[in-house]
Amino acid sequence: MIRIAALAAAALLFGGAARAEVKELRVGKQYGFPYFQLIVMQDKELIEKHAKAAGLGEVKVEWVTMGGPAALNDGILSGAIDFASVGLPNLVTMWEKTRGEGAVRGFSGNNAMPLLLVSRNPAVKTVKDYGAESRIAVPSAKLSAQAILLQMSVAKEFGDAGYAKLDPLTLSMGHPDAMAALLTGQIDSHYSSAPFQYKELETPGIHLVLSSYEPMGGAHSVGALVMRTKFRDENPKTLAAIRAAFDEATEWVKANHREAADSYLRVTKEKVAPGELVAMMERPEIEFTNRPLGVGRFAEFMHRIGLVKAKPESWRDLFFPEAHELDGN
Hints:
The chain is α/β, with parallel strands linked by helices. Helices cover 42% and strands 14% of the residues.
């Protein structure tokens, strides 16, 4: 009885004290350039570095690479993944699904670069040319940024009522598998990201059908870094360390293309020559940045066609206050 009373008294006395922050982090990402800084953070152990500088001691970071966003979304929502980089449509969906307690929000943008739809079918010049025999690989059918961007292009051609016209042609495939399937003729089209899309376009017979900058009306982020409100509230120093690590990686990648390419290849083991990777990094349409761009355009389209019921008033509604100073839209 004395022990129980003592524990109860301690709980009352220290109940308001700050709990210890996590000692292990589980981070989710996919394949390709959209995750360049995260890959550098993994290679250079930047989260561990900034966590230690913040007085958090040794923090173990586990990196999980998945082929599409569906598993990442489930991991974030369940708490199995602490933070992840997801496409902007996935952020919009999770924001709408979790408004209120337990909400998922972004805390940084994640790069601006076009996603390219390519095809080996010479008859396909625009989305209007696809027939029932075509197969279009995307990371996750009806869910990934590529799937939503395809719907945006289709809606532009056929009207909002026909936005899902090409959905039956889409297949869920991770980019490495989809590139292999495209190059061997198992599928005829792939809506991809760098570096895969540029490697595909080097292959004779494969041509560009669409850049995502067209339906979006300009440059857009390929994703956002997201986490649950509960994790953010319980781990403020950890969040600050993650943001500092991402920003350091961003500036380092921009200033050190060759070294960054080596870092990227050490982790990914992708079959791309370092010089080729540097040339892709230096393409004018690619920007390594933390700015959240195009959030409002995705949200407006998804609300207009009924994919989400709520429409944010501003991109900032989908992000924690820590990110509100970023120059987003």
